Amino acid sequence: MSPHETFFLTPSSKMEQFQIDNNPYIQFQIKDFPGNQELKETNAVDIQTIKGCGSLLYVIDAQQQEYEQPCTKLRDIIKTCHAINNKISYDVFIHKVDTDMFLLDDQKMDCLNDIQELMKQLLMDYNLSVSLSFYLTSIYDHTIYESLSKVIQKLLPQVGFISAMIDNLISNSKIEKAFLFDVISKIYIATDSNPVEMKHYEICSELIDVLIDVSCIYGIDEHAGTLKFDKESSSIIKLNHAGGSEEKIVLYLREVDKCLALVCLINEREFHKQHLINYNIDKFKEGLRKIFEAAKNAKKLQ
């Protein structure tokens, strides 16, 4: 859905549930509640929802300059949820930071600091100690996807092991940056330990768009009638003067599991060792599958 199409979406009037299961090893549910929903400790359905919740995502409209009311509501939600399930992590999307009100980065940071300080004070009043993260988001850039990626990563216990494997991969293959993407949602499941630069995430995300567009033309499974993304799926794109640099960067995408792709940024002078890179990625795929299987078996034993 393009950004302008979201203007025609009607506000949620009831709870809606979505199942995310693009990959057999990474599956979760999203429950979307309307803004006027109140969670109650006496409601059996609410209690069941809270008990099964790993992360609670709360959206604040940055354009409404009076933030006390939505922050107070969030404090009340946290108070109710914490009494039932104290393992929930709370994530706040400060959304719509893309209007004339936020032309400068300083204006966005002022908004973020105001909401953080207000929430800190409201939680202190009730002695609530919870994991609370804040993100500035917009539908007109990739911030919404990057922020969702960070929320999802906190729900996946195997992310730390996958990141360690990616670190090993980029070290042995002379790769500058690598992301493990869900190609359907464009959420990255894991990355290496180097800091994430938005320009790197954006360009890798756009490579996935190119792959999907080309696959829609040439990669449809004639028997199933579905988009074909399998072990043969890969893409190589060379960029000249990426990010203002004189060095040429190669974007290299390889399928590593169902609907999962490893997207790498590699300096062109290192890409002549593609056979070594492919060998290391194959070993990464084997390790990734073992991690997923181990996590799946551990879940069965719980």
UniProtKB/TrEMBL annotation:
SUPFAM superfamilies: P-loop containing nucleoside triphosphate hydrolases. Gene3D superfamilies: 3.30.450.190, P-loop containing nucleotide triphosphate hydrolases. InterPro entries: Gtr1_RagA, P-loop_NTPase. One of its GO terms (biological process) is cellular response to starvation. Keywords: GTP-binding, Nucleotide-binding. It holds the Pfam family Gtr1_RagA. GO terms for cellular component: Gtr1-Gtr2 GTPase complex; lysosome; nucleus. It comes from the Eukaryota. One of its GO terms (molecular function) is GTP binding. Belongs to the GTR/RAG GTP-binding protein family. This is Ras-related gtp-binding protein c. It comes from Stylonychia lemnae. The lineage of its organism: Eukaryota, Sar, Alveolata, Ciliophora, Intramacronucleata.
